[in-house]
Amino acid sequence: MQFETLIYRREGRVARITLNRPERLNAITLAMPGEIRSAVEEANQDDNVHVILLDGAGRAFCSGYDLKAYAEATGHETGTQEMPWDPFLDFQLMDHNTQCFLSLWRSYKPTVCKIHGYALAGGSDIALCCDLIVMAEDAKIAIRRHGSGGARRR
Predict the structure, then answer these.
(1) Rounded to 10 degrees, what is the CA torsion of 53, 113, 50, 99?
(2) How far apart are alpha carbons 37 and 39 in whole angstroms?
(3) Is residue 75's pLDDT more than 70?
(4) pTM of the full structure
């Protein structure tokens, strides 16, 4: 299977899923959640795979949602909506992404996330869906606190 936002490869008994948008610190696009789910499904269907390793290319694991890409997107499938804002449409988009990330949690095979650099916002959501997280000593994992305007580190 060809992927736009990640690299999937099997190395012996390990399926390695590498988020591959290093120029944007592996920020999440519309395509990435579905590609993560597809890669996990591929690994689960391969009897030679015993564990799934998730990591990020470049300087960070994942910097969260690519707000620049969403802001500049045009057309019907942009991840944004016309005003007035409909919270249900927003929920549907985020629920779809969450269900895709949860494919890591629901995997038949153990999942390990390797964090270096940043795992921010949606990037921390992806990481926390894995069975085990291994972090570099200088890695930062954070989510945005609702209403505070700041981030909370984990």
Answers:
(1) -100
(2) 6
(3) no
(4) 0.86
